[in-house]
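Worked example
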Amino acid sequence: MKNRLRLLRAERDWSQSDLAAHLGISRQSVNAIETGKYDPSLPLAFRIADLFALRIEDIFSAENKETEE
């Protein structure tokens, strides 16, 4: 899953540790989400979206969108 988390975090001049503290997760989890190694749970995705005042779809998107035939 692709995401804009690193960009959104950088816009606020937050470190991964800062974002982790806001979300109540570890810095390693933030890194794993940003690098696409881990997809957040739905509740965590909602917390991320709420924190940035965006919709989940504005932050996360499918990496390989299938085209309809």
